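In these records, each integer encodes one residue's backbone shape. Here is one protein:

___
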Amino acid sequence: MGISNGSSLVQMCLVKVAKNMDELERKVANLPVSLLKDLLPHLNIYYLDRIETAAASKGISTSVIWAAIWRDLDQTWRWRLKSALPDQDWKQRCLERLFHMVLFTQVRRGGSYLSDLSESSILSMTVKHVRVLSLHTSTRNISRLASGDLRPILSSLEKGVTSLKLLDAKSLFKHGRKHVLFVLHRLLDHGSVIEVVLRRNPDSSFLSWLTSRRRGHQLSVSSTPEASHRSVVGEFDSRCRAELEEPAAKRLALDMEENPEVLCSEFSSSSSPADRCPEGQIHSLDFEVSKCEILTTVSRILPTWLCLHTLHLHSDWLISEQEMSVLVESLRRLFLNPGCSLTDLSISHVSGHTHLISILRACLTLKNLCLEICPPAVRNTWRPQPRFTENRGSNPSLKVLKLEDINLSDYHQEILQFLEHSVLEELCFRDCRLLDKCAVKKDFLLPFVEALKGISSLRTLMLAQNRLATSAIEIAKLFSGCRPSKITRVDLSSNFILPAELLEFAQLLETYRPVQRLTLDLRSNPLDRDPEVKGQALRKLIPYCNILTDDWDSRSTMADHISVM
């Protein structure tokens, strides 16, 4: 009997078994380990899921199969880093992606993992593994979730989804606004969603509808803006004031249209407008703010958002000094309430750095702070610079501080004073021009390193894009002496470090022998100018570091990379 395409008789039998798993499933556990391993790649996702327990009892992991399916679904994935994910993560990631592809886009059916499966059976299986639901442009298919035939799918999403991504909210509402609002209401109020990512917000009324889910245990702080708040808003342009003064009739109409009880009664035969819907809570908001929204909505709702743990504000435009003043005042009023839960704050495109200290003073229980600071538009206008007070050099609860694109070259004493009382776990000074005005760079680096060594909680230090060059050698002294640092991750990327300087850094590290293994990021440094010296440096670092460079990382086979240098 001729067998074409290189197929073996065993392979043909395995394919036949996979095609008839409905009859043979109970007997699969009796297969020898070698045959069971060979069978797994031929199964569709339904049976692969069902025989996982039997395979595990024989010491066989299905993670390699799920990882291969992921590679087929997302061919842009950096495949060599796959080992970083636990076994269950590959399965969950695959099935979550398949759900989105089947419901909202389309999926290729070339692989055996989808053979003999209908769209409804794929959705029914994969929906149980969706934790993050991403909604963007396919309004028609999103509206299907509001229909009767997909109501069981929506009910499953209510139970499992904890994070909701609205990646193009403006497009979502072009057609079928009520359908989309009903789906969002079910997920947010009847479901388990506590994290929301919002991009391209369609209008202020939707943001108000969304952020009504901000109730805490008590609302003891008035939501009425203080006089300073009102004065700043009053100074802003007329377009923003027009949004603030939206006609009452229009707002009332929107409230009626988007009332949760009305939505539920319209789309669900089992409920009526008299039935009271539950009200969810949003604990995390990742929000792309548009012009005026900080003034019109964000600053207004913040003081009463007691259940909010994480707030990330992004913008494509420069957040002005005036808007930051309003925002800081709103944060201050929020943190005055003992019920405040906010611990993680990130703001991008802030104009100047005069509000950094104000935020630290206003948000005393903040643990993570990330600011992307841009130079002020008017460079020739003198402004008083921020100074740390003598009795409060640091926020007592701050665990993570990230500053990007801010000139700290004139603030060495303030930095050292800040670090002296710090309990930071992660510190990032990215593109902060730390040494730009140093005549003798060691004059700052030596006390800086000693101050870092004094922070016993510090585990991550990120100094990318600071033009350290030969001064990077001093960073190795973090691990010297009788009180070495406990840092486990150091980012020295984009610092003009040459191979000879890296070799000297490596020699010091070899002398100090850090107790904890480091992750050392050396990417975007000109290390290829001397491949031989680079190789010597990497060989000395390998016993102590997981190394990231532009060519390779230490999760690859290190010896292979170094041998060719």
In short: The first strand starts at residue 132 and ends at 135. The mean pLDDT is 80.
